[in-house]
Amino acid sequence: MEQQEPTDNASTSFFGKFYMSGDASHSSSIEEYNSTNSELDAEDTNNSLTKSSKPSNGSILQRKYPLTRVCKERCPRAFRIFFSILLPHFLLLSIGMLCGYFITVFESPNEVSTNNDIAIRAHYIEKMSNNTIFTKRTNYDTCAEKYDDLTVSQSEHIGIKPFFDNCTDYDTIFVSKWYKETILNTTLNTMTFNWFKCLDKNYFLQATYFYKNWKKSYNIIREKYMKQEGMMKKNHEKIKIINATTSKIWLDIYDVMIPKQISTEHIMIKEKYAALLAMNEATGDIGCENNILGGAIFWFSVMTTIGYGNAVPKTNSGRGLVFSLGFVSIICFAAIIGHSSEIMLERIDDKLSRYKKLKFLTEGLPAVFLWLAMFWSWIAVYAICYLYIEKYNEAEHDSINNAFWFSYISMTTIGFGDYYLNYYDNLYSRFFLWTLTMLMGFLLLGNFALKLSLHVEKIKKQLVLSLI
């Protein structure tokens, strides 16, 4: 008998033996199975050819964004620096500006209300300084002492009445000028313009502008109430609240005693309450707007954990915003600075390692001192920018020592609050200048910390090996 040649396919050998067993009913099943297998193999082949001819998912994205594909292929390092360092940092600034807008929306009404109260006090001081009777009465004792110092012949020659008239007139002018130039200005200086601004100027000029607007508003509202018939009856509820909440000193601005038998529509009472109603309704924020860039600088100090403390949210809405989104901003800042520092360190170490003479700067103490020197150099650059760009009214802020101190407490996120970035006179160029230079300082500080941690870890391993 002829011997059959063995087949390579195990399944064919199995089915061949099965077929040889004489079961004719399985013959058609075997043929059907083989034909099905051949069809599936052909389909798999066609699918594989089709998949190989189709572009991958990455190539589809590259087709949609051809500029991104070209940049990634031709400039991989610049591409990584842009998307790993620059773009995330601009994202941080965008978060700061967005949250800064909302914090000004929440806080500016409260700040306007506080400044209106200060304007009422300034108005009271200004009115009292123009009250000649008040100033004459307060200076009678002084004039009497001056008259006693005169000799008998001088007192007989001048006369007591002309002397007191001249003395009190002179003192009246002197006191009025002193009130306006000292107490009034001091009161206006207590106004704040952190969350809204009226002019791109310093606080005192804005306060003067705000107070002038408040007086215009006060005079308009006061005249409206004076012309209103039956003013006392129509505004009974408002007057009731004023009597309950306003202190006696405000009620006594215009008249000390009003007899009860006088009609409620008497001109004295009407003038008094018209003025008080106008004080409660007048506002000086006409022509002012929310200080969005000031809010952005505040949010940047929150995000970076500097927290200068020159402005703090006082409303529940503002504090809730800092409590929620402020925490998220801090986490985003820490993650982006950490990742960007790592990418920057990798790029610079790669550059230095290409030169034999500079390769030693990539590890150990030389690397630690290199990044420390770069960080301190950047502190000096930031101090010079602060010295020559920031404009302050006080001369003590213009020294290089104070500028260097401000740069140090900012770059290290200490933020004592004795020096800070002002919220007025803001431009977009100024905002991006300060924030981007400060973020660069944080990157240098992060690289120094990374190199220091690597060096400490290396020393730690050496100590462990030496002890084993």
Sum up the overall morphology in one term: elongated
Radius of gyration: 41 Å
Mean pLDDT: 76
Straight-line N-to-C gap:
78 Å
The CATH architecture classification of the domain at 311-467 is Orthogonal Bundle
Work out the helicity level: over 70%
Explain the overall architecture.
This protein is mainly alpha-helical. Among the domains are: 200-287, no CATH class; 311-467, Helix Hairpins. The protein is built from 19 helices and two strands. It has helices at residues 10-20, 27-53, 57-64, 66-74, 76-129, 132-138, 140-149, 152-158, 160-188, 203-227, 231-234, 236-245, 248-251, 267-281, 292-303, 316-353, 364-389, 400-411, 428-467, and strands spanning 196-197, 289-290. A two-stranded antiparallel sheet has the order 1-2. The model is unreliable at 1-33, 43-59, 132-138, 169-173 and 247-265 (pLDDT under 50).
Features:
74% helix, Helix Hairpins, elongated, two-stranded antiparallel sheet, mainly alpha, 19 helices, 468 residues
List the helices and strands and how they pair.
Elements: H1 10-20, H2 27-53, H3 57-64, H4 66-74, H5 76-129, H6 132-138, H7 140-149, H8 152-158, H9 160-188, E1 196-197, H10 203-227, H11 231-234, H12 236-245, H13 248-251, H14 267-281, E2 289-290, H15 292-303, H16 316-353, H17 364-389, H18 400-411, H19 428-467
Antiparallel strand pairs: 1-2
Helix pairs in contact: 3-4, 4-5, 5-9, 5-10, 5-15, 5-16, 6-9, 7-9, 10-14, 16-19, 17-18, 17-19
